[in-house]
Amino acid sequence: MNMSISSFIQQCRHLRNTVISTYGKGVRSWFNYIYYALFRINKFKILMASLEIPLEDGIVPFGIDLLNPPINELECLRSKDKFPREFFCDQFQKVKNCMIALIDGELAYIHWVYYKGDFSRFLSIGSDSAEINYVITMPKHRGRGISTAAFMITLQNLKKQGLKKVYAVVHEENIASIKSFTRAGFVEVGTTVSLGPFNRKVSV
Description:
single chain, alpha+beta, Aminopeptidase, two-stranded parallel sheet, 10 strands, globular
């Protein structure tokens, strides 16, 4: 498992908020988290969007601001409340590029962009590719199309950087996320599996 002790400790700091945002509150939520994280054989879809074809413009839902903040600005925003680990990937994986959504000045959403040289659990990222990872919308803001708009804008930005393909790896049971990626122009190009924290990497 490619994870340092310090990285593990950083994730544990935000574990409770991660469990609540993903599985809800209560003992059963913790049981589900432990089962999926450590014991279950999990299947994932590998999704890809080509940047070598014309891309649609993302339409940002009313009342939502989508931004690519520097880490110091993100730190100010996330210090105002308790957020799940997805908002802290810069701390435990040293990634630096993210997109956030603000609603009335409040953090509502985040995803991170991984390039060649960044740590990715499932992918070995090539020089002309990138990965969108650690995507989460806070529960009270879900169902508004935030992630689809954020993906589409990110694709436009990455195309301007000269990249050719963008990937995402999504659990097969995360239907809402799969639909969001599909609406943004992603298609399934493969699958992979993990046993708890263990998995092989796919070169892209």
